[in-house]
């Protein structure tokens, strides 16, 4: 019964989050774009390929890109900066290594689904090494020993089996993506949730929901902490177009590995 109540609470929390995001997106769409430092001019980009990338959902995408800026600037980054200020770098690194090690389960699952035998063995060896010698993933000796991280996701799995990327899409919170990768993100999230539900190390505790929410929050803070990208800090008047172009190029290269 307690587990069922916890599931209902998580569902309600997710529903509330998306309701708030929808309202905030509408508000952000009506705000003026942030000022871009005039370090570059439009003439530099007039004939570049970035201006001609297909973007059928551009109106929505630009609004969402701007919404993500405000969410990042006024919520995520202040929290991340506070976390970085009060947390010693050594502890930050241990948190990052721990969550990165958990992420190897997603990498392993998708390597299997893509029938990549070598990648599967490599990722499994990395996960087992860091989970044992690395004290439950708190350290990353695998990288030192030549077992570097090889990210995989269900979007790449779909690409492996011939699914086209589809239209460019800027997601709330998650940022630049595509129709295919958005679907892949949902599947990866479902797989991770399913695995966690089966394990659920906090199931027997009275405050299991509070603990789970705290772990999820720390995971979100650490994820943003590890991403150096900042919206509207490039100084380019066509940052949106550049991000769109490089997002597509990066994913295209990733599908050819």
From TrEMBL:
Alphabetized UniProt keyword annotations: Lipoprotein, Signal
InterPro entries: MlaA
A biological process from GO: intermembrane phospholipid transfer
Signal peptide: 1-28
Entry GO CC: membrane
Family to which the UniProt record says this protein belongs: Belongs to the MlaA family.
Protein name per UniProt: VacJ family lipoprotein
Organism, as annotated: Geomesophilobacter sediminis
């Amino acid at each position: 019964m307690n587990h069922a109540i916890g599931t209902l609470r998580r569902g309600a929390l997710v529903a509330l989050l998306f309701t708030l995001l929808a309202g905030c997106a509408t508000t952000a769409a009506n705000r003026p774009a942030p000022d871009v430092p005039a370090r570059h001019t439009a003439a530099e980009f007039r004939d570049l390929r970035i201006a001609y990338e297909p973007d059928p959902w551009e109106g929505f995408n630009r609004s969402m890109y701007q919404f993500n800026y405000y969410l990042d600037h006024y919520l995520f980054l202040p929290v991340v900066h506070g976390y970085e200020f009060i947390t010693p770098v050594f502890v930050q690194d241990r948190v990052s290594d721990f969550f990165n090690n958990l992420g190897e389960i997603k990498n392993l699952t998708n390597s299997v689904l893509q029938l990549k035998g070598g990648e599967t063995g490599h990722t499994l060896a990395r996960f087992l090494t860091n989970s044992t010698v690395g004290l439950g993933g708190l350290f990353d000796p695998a990288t030192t020993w030549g077992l570097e991280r090889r990210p995989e996701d269900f979007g790449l799995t779909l690409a492996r089996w011939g699914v086209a990327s589809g239209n460019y899409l800027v997601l709330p919170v998650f940022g630049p993506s595509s129709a295919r990768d958005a679907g892949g993100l949902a599947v990866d999230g479902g797989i991770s949730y399913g695995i966690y539900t089966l394990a659920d190390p906090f199931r027997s505790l009275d405050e299991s929901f509070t603990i789970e929410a705290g772990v999820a929050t720390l995971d979100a803070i650490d994820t943003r902490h590890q991403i150096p990208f900042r919206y509207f800090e490039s100084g380019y008047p066509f940052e949106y177009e550049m991000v769109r172009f490089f997002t597509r190029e990066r994913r295209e290269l990733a599908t050819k590995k």
